[in-house]
Design a protein that fits this description.
InterPro entries: AGPR (IPR050085), AGPR_AS (IPR023013), AGPR_dimerisation_dom (IPR058924), AGPR_type-1 (IPR000706), NAD(P)-bd_dom_sf (IPR036291), Semialdehyde_DH_NAD-bd (IPR000534). It is an enzyme of class 1 (oxidoreductase). By secondary structure, this protein is of the alpha/beta class. The protein folds into 2 domains: 160 residues, NAD(P)-binding Rossmann-like Domain (Rossmann fold), CATH 3.40.50; 153 residues, Dihydrodipicolinate Reductase, domain 2. It is built from 11 helices and 13 strands. Bound molecules: NADPH dihydro-nicotinamide-adenine-dinucleotide phosphate and N-acetyl-L-glutamyl 5-phosphate (X2W).
């Protein structure tokens, strides 16, 4: 078995990673870092994992724990992987980072969108962007992968084939996407606790949400992105609007682009977030409107699945030469 070290194991993504790895045929948890809960049983923070990890406890941060690990999976707040970079790279084992630290192409772009200078610009060029549907071969040959998170994954899956086929204008694309509250991480604040979200629906991060950068970098188009928070635990639905370059069949373009993709389903029915819950699946649809000459393209994923932990496992499988789908489900939990 490949032994994985998990950073941020006490977080929502960390918990989902451990849930997936518990059922993975070739990967097991070597060490689960969770400094704030060091010494406590994993089940004290993730009770749903009690049967899967009856004896495992969270470890305090210590790079010595990497000894005997063959894979590092980092699910830390952005900034943390830059800070720990030397220790994470020292073991020389594959690293999948889900934070935003190494996703953008340049230190300038990082500073522009994250509002702080990049601490390790020397390493930026060494990471591959971990969206397998577009960068599979590069991921296979990489030791360092920066996996994208939920909003950019959903938007880019819906948009990139349409931009590449020149079916839509690359200027002025609008992405409205709604996220379940787990997208904001484990710690509640006034905006994310029950009373802040129950029975309500709101936009946030207007004009300058940092995920705009990854949407533009991967799709190659100009994007105006508005995230929304919906009163559910999991799920992302991205609804993308673009001016068509002429009459087109966007559904056919998406079907062809993803015909051989194990985790992407393209269908006529507008997708729902619930279809993807607990899985690594992405459900897409699209339409052309003759009246307005616009295309609308939709993507639904589980923010913790294809938008986070599932994506990390899919990348790790590719990097390790395993079956890409190992340990990952294509089926949501429904109803
Ligand atoms: N939630 C989601 O749907 C998605 C999240 N992401 C990204 O994945 C990463 C993890 O997200 P998520 O699991 O939701 O986050 P959480 O806040 O739920 O968990 C983060 C974990 O990181 C650890 N940590 C280490 N250093 C710090 C620090 N300086 N400040 C706060 N926590 C720290 C904490 O554990 P401890 O203190 O015990 O070390 C904590 O449990 C983030 O970069 C996030 O943006 C990306 C895609 C989707
Ligand atoms: C609902 C919610 O708050 N979502 C988060 C996105 C979390 C995430 O995916 O962050 P990274 O991909 O940058 O790691 C947000 O909008 O900031």
């Amino acid at each position: 078995m490949i032994r994985a070290a998990i950073l941020g194991a006490s977080g929502y993504v960390g918990g989902e990673l451990m849930r997936l790895i518990a059922a993975h045929p070739a990967i097991e948890v070597g060490v689960a870092f969770g400094a704030s809960n060091a010494g406590q049983a994993v089940a004290a923070v993730h009770p749903h994992l009690a049967l899967a990890y009856p004896e495992l406890a969270f470890a305090a941060w210590d790079a010595a724990h990497f000894q005997g690990c063959d894979l590092i999976l980092a699910a830390l707040p952005h900034g943390e992987t830059q800070r720990l970079a030397d220790e994470l790279l020292a073991p020389g084992v594959p690293l999948v980072d889900l934070g935003a630290d190494f996703r953008l192409g340049s230190a300038g772009e990082y500073e522009r969108w994250y509002g702080e200078p990049h601490a390790r610009p020397d390493l930026l060029g060494r990471f591959t962007y971990g969206l397998p549907e577009f960068f599979r071969d590069e991921i296979k040959g990489s030791r360092l992968v920066a996996a994208p998170g939920c909003y950019p994954t959903a938007a880019n899956l819906a948009l990139k084939p349409l931009v590449d086929a020149a079916a839509i204008d690359g200027q002025g694309i609008i992405v409205d996407a709604a996220s379940g509250v787990s997208g904001a991480g484990r710690a509640a604040n006034a905006g994310t606790h029950f009373c802040g979200i129950d029975g309500s629906y709101r936009a946030y991060g207007l004009i300058r949400h940092r995920h705009t950068a990854e949407m533009e970098m991967v799709s190659g188009a100009e994007v105006l992105f508005t995230p929304h928070l919906m009163a559910t635990s999991r799920g992302i639905l991205a609804t993308c609007y673009a001016r068509a370059t002429g009459p087109c069949d966007p559904l056919a373009i998406l079907r062809e682009a993803y015909a051989n993709e194990p985790f992407v389903h393209v269908g006529e029915t507008p997708p729902e977030t619930k279809w993807a819950t607990g899985s690594n699946a992405a459900f897409l649809s699209a339409r052309y409107d003759e009246r307005t000459n616009m295309v609308v393209a939709l993507a639904a994923i589980d923010n913790l699945g294809k938008g986070a932990a599932g994506q990390m496992v899919q990348c790790a499988n590719l990097m390790l030469g395993l079956d890409e789908t190992a340990g990952l489900s294509t089926m949501g939990v429904y109803p």
